[in-house]
């Protein structure tokens, strides 16, 4: 692709004026890289209370999610942990048990997945959790070698 260095792009120039401008300027090289539209695949990660896991799995099933990963994790947010009393002694629990659910999906499905998770995990109390959405560059199904959206389909 060639681009003219001093081109002003004036509207309504006659052919002679355009030719003179073209002859007076020197062409420069411009590289153009074609890329797929960014964000075609997403990774939705939700961290929430373990008591809401079954409700979230059911909600994702109703939203036609074909696969997910569940991990038991520990952490804290604004609540900074909590104190508990066990056999008369007070203990400070800084890292609270949580559940992390990860779902890889197409960009068009992201809103549906996030809505299903937030509706099912919401208890209205502090510590309900968070949902994160990140772009995925590449997905490969190990068994078949399928890539990207074909790899996350059924």
Features:
single chain, 154 residues, two-stranded antiparallel ribbon, 4 helices, 23% helix
Whole-number average pLDDT? 79
The residue fraction in helices comes out at 10-25%
Strand tally is: 8
Strand content: 25-35%
Output the structural class. alpha+beta
Shape: elongated
Distance between termini? 42 Å
- Write the H/E string, N to C: EHEEHEEEEHEH
- Specify the oligomeric state: single chain
Identify the strand order in the major beta sheet: 4-7-3-8
Radius of gyration: 27 Å
For the largest beta-sheet, the strand count, sense and barrel status come to: 4 strands, antiparallel
Number of helices: 4
Give the low-confidence spans. Answer: 1-7, 30-39
Task: Provide an overview of this structure.
With 154 residues, the chain is of the alpha+beta class. The chain is 23% helix and 32% strand. It has 4 helices and 8 strands. It has helices at residues 15-24, 53-62, 110-121, 149-152; strands at residues 2-4, 27-29, 41-48, 69-75, 82-86, 89-93, 96-106, 129-136. Helix 2 runs antiparallel to helix 3 (110-121). The chain is elongated. The protein starts with a strand and ends with a helix.
Strands, helices and their partners?
Elements: E1 2-4, H1 15-24, E2 27-29, E3 41-48, H2 53-62, E4 69-75, E5 82-86, E6 89-93, E7 96-106, H3 110-121, E8 129-136, H4 149-152
Antiparallel strand pairs: 1-2, 3-7, 3-8, 4-7, 5-6
Helix pairs in contact: 2-3
Brief summary:
With about 150 residues, this protein is α+β, with helices and mostly antiparallel strands. It is built from four helices and eight strands; from the N terminus they run βαββαββββαβα. Strands 4-7-3-8 form a four-stranded antiparallel β-sheet, with helices on one face. The chain has a two-stranded antiparallel sheet with strand order 1-2. A two-stranded antiparallel ribbon has the order 5-6.
